Amino acid sequence: MPPTWRPCGRQWHASPTPARRSPDTPRAAPVPHAVPPRDSGRRPAPDTMRHRRFPRAVIKASKKNGWVDGASLRRGPCWSPRMTDSQASETLQEPGLLYMSSVDVEALGLTPADLRGAIGDAVRRRSHDIRGGLKTRVQVDETRFFMSMSDADTVLGLGVTKWIGYSAANAQRGLPAISAQIILSDADTARPVAIMDGSWITTHRTAALSALAAQALARPGGSTLGVLGCGVQAHSNLAALADVLPGLRKVRAFSRSTASAEALADRARDMGFEAEVMQDPEALAGTSDVVVSCLPSIDGITPIVRSQALKPGALAIGVDLGRAWQRDGLSDHVDGFFTDDLAALERNGGNPSLAHQGRYDGDLYAMLSGAHPGRESDTQRLMFLFPGMPLADLAVARLVMTRAAERGLGTSLMR
Predict the structure, then answer these.
(1) Which CATH number fits the domain that encloses residue 162?
(2) What are 215-247's pLDDT values in tens digits?
(3) Are the beta carbons of 367 and 216 closer than 8 angstroms?
(4) DSSP string of 45-87?
(5) Are residues 60 and 172 in the same domain?
(6) Stretch 374-391: mean pLDDT
(7) Smaller CB count within 10 Å for the chain: N or C?
(8) Roughly how many angstroms between the first and final C-alpha of the chain, as a whole number?
(9) DSSP labels, 181-206
(10) CA–CA gap between residue 299 and residue 277 (Å, rounded)
(11) Cα–Cα distance measured from residue 132 to residue 347, given in angstroms and rounded to the nearest whole number
């Protein structure tokens, strides 16, 4: 009788299919699994193909009386009667899958300039025939959602998918509100090459996008940065913007939580800036050259600033999609609106969460390629509202993978 695969703990056990027997009949001994020949050129007998029940695995029988241990289980293309010896050999020699934990990613010590350079290069040389930047969202309720972001780049030779989870209640659990995992795949073979924690990447690539926008849209000589909402994104944006605003001298912080505002102010002082915690968000907006809003995406958060509070020559960066700004009259008081990827925004049918639902004047592609000059006068009030671009995740994840290979970090997983 042909053997049947049965799970046993973390192993697979090949044993005969049991027939009905009396309680006094001893159990049959395990039967080793027969390995199908790869060079016979003929279709093997049905009883030698039981492993094909697992279409993504090539199984090598071990010598332990029919037990197949974890080390003998290799993911890869199915064995086929048409597969040559060399193809079968390549299947078993495929490189392992790189895994980068959050500790591994942070240990690389990537700087804001590293991230800004990687993303900027990817945007400038982007192959525009790639219809990337696709997003899907599953809204569990008002405080929880899941989202995927995907893109590919033939120049970099990679595809990316990021899976994000958000739960506002995680603050009470002592957990981050946002968690993410990134899968990188080879663009030619479509095979995954790396899996990595995406939380650090998501936080800091977002700040890098803010910095790239500020380079093109902030008024030269601006000395004051205002921050609305002082969570994780506020800290990463402070570091990223300090790197591209040479005239920055003062940081003003506003938050519903005085403790978080004070923490950001302390961080700014440690970086050598003057810092002040403000109680009036409109006063902050009216006295800042660059205003970054980072309000959380939770139920009950309402806009806290009117658009007329933005002073002439200022730039507002909506890390929170502009959630901090009242929508009424926004177009009347802002001279230009920009986003990260206008084509992707249109392909995804827009984004109802963006504070501005009208026309956008340009995006990072246009500004970094020189197709749009960015700021055109010192008195323009400008807004950069962006939902985040998957190409940025791809560029930073590739940088992580490259640096990890150079330093020998990460874990190679069996396929």
Answers:
(1) 3.30.1780.10
(2) 999 999 999 999 999 999 999 999 999 999 999
(3) yes
(4) PGGG-GGGGSTTEEE---SBTTEE-GGGEEESSPP-TT--HHH
(5) no
(6) 96
(7) N
(8) 31
(9) EEEEEETTT--EEEEEE-HHHHHHHH
(10) 25
(11) 9
